[in-house]
Design goal:
The structure is a single chain. Helix content is 42%, strand content 14%. With 256 residues, it is of the alpha/beta class. The protein has one domain: NAD(P)-binding Rossmann-like Domain (Rossmann fold, 3-Layer(aba) Sandwich). β5, α6 and β6 form a beta-alpha-beta unit. The structure holds nicotinamide-adenine-dinucleotide. The site of nicotinamide-adenine-dinucleotide has 27 residues, from α1.
């Protein structure tokens, strides 16, 4: 097998908060195969946690990005255009919902919380696809992250399950939309992993325990395992694959 699957590939990674982030697992897998990285951080507060990781990963570009702030994504894409002139891949590894709405049963979710969850966790992917498209003139690959709570009513996942269902549907429609330009769009659905975002879910420890029991081998996924799935999707190994939802959950999704 080619030992440098990502040689010459320029990849934007959005969603590293710290060394536990799924996006960090992806970045490590891609870097190990020769990818050149643009890494973003949410804001000044987050920067000090992300910067050492970006340095370790020898990121060529390190830029702020809060997708809820108008103009910030344009600045990131503008910097990529100026520095690289091309983009081959993009990882969208972000989600957000106000805690009171995340913890509420779906019938109690506020309109404001619903719209914010949809905007940051789903619409931002559509917007990234739109802005990345002109830079993907050599073809490209886009991925995002969903969860089983999109397809099933998982306890305590609430409005985030609705946002993830929309994200998965967006993946399929974007795959058709961008296919003619040789841009592929896929979704990875990891099992539960203890990260900062996940810690906002009510009773997340119980969810972890339940997932471990439900998995086929008694294991939970790691960010390295998810990173390897991302490597498959971002590299030419998956050249014929678009519009898919790929589970990395040790078989929880098929266990009854
Ligand atoms: P994480 O906390 O490490 O990452 C979430 C990221 O979202 C952070 O980097 C945060 O800065 C970013 N973010 C939030 N609001 C943002 C905004 N307005 N603009 C830009 N970035 C913003 O947690 P994670 O678990 O690595 O989450 C990554 C993705 O994986 C999310 O989509 C999450 O829903 C998904 N996921 C996680 C699990 C799990 O169990 N951890 C399972 C399935 C799917």
């Amino acid at each position: 097998m080619n030992s440098q699957l990502m040689q010459g590939k320029k990849i934007l990674i959005v969603g590293i908060a710290n060394e536990h982030s799924i996006a960090y697992g992806c970045a490590k897998a891609l870097k190990a195969q020769g990818a050149e990285l643009c890494i973003t951080y949410l804001n000044e507060k987050a920067k000090r946690f992300v910067e050492p990781l970006a340095q370790e990963l020898e990121a060529e570009l390190f830029l702020p990005l809060d997708v809820s702030k108008p103009g910030e994504l344009e600045l990131v894409m503008g910097s990529i255009k100026e520095a690289w002139g091309v983009l081959h891949g993009l990882i969208h590894s972000i989600a957000f919902c106000p805690l009171e709405d995340l913890h509420a049963p779906i019938s109690q979710c506020s309109r404001e919380g619903f719209l914010q969850a949809m905007d940051i966790s789903c619409y931002s992917f559509i917007e990234m696809a739109r802005q990345a498209k002109p830079l993907m003139n050599e073809g490209g690959s886009l991925i995002n992250f969903s969860y089983l709570g999109s397809a099933m009513a998982v306890e305590d996942y609430n409005v985030m399950g609705v946002a993830k269902a929309a994200l998965e549907a967006s993946t399929r429609y974007l795959a058709r939309d961008l296919g003619p330009q040789k841009v592929r769009v896929n979704c990875i659905s990891p099992g539960t992993i203890p990260t900062r975002a996940a810690s906002g879910i009510k009773d997340f420890d119980a969810m972890l325990e339940h997932n471990q029991e439900m998995s086929c081998d008694g294991q939970l996924p790691t960010i390295e395992e998810v990173g390897n799935a991302a490597l498959y999707y971002l590299s030419d190994l998956s050249k014929g694959v678009t519009g898919t939802i790929h589970y990395v959950d040790h078989g929880v999704c098929i266990s009854g």
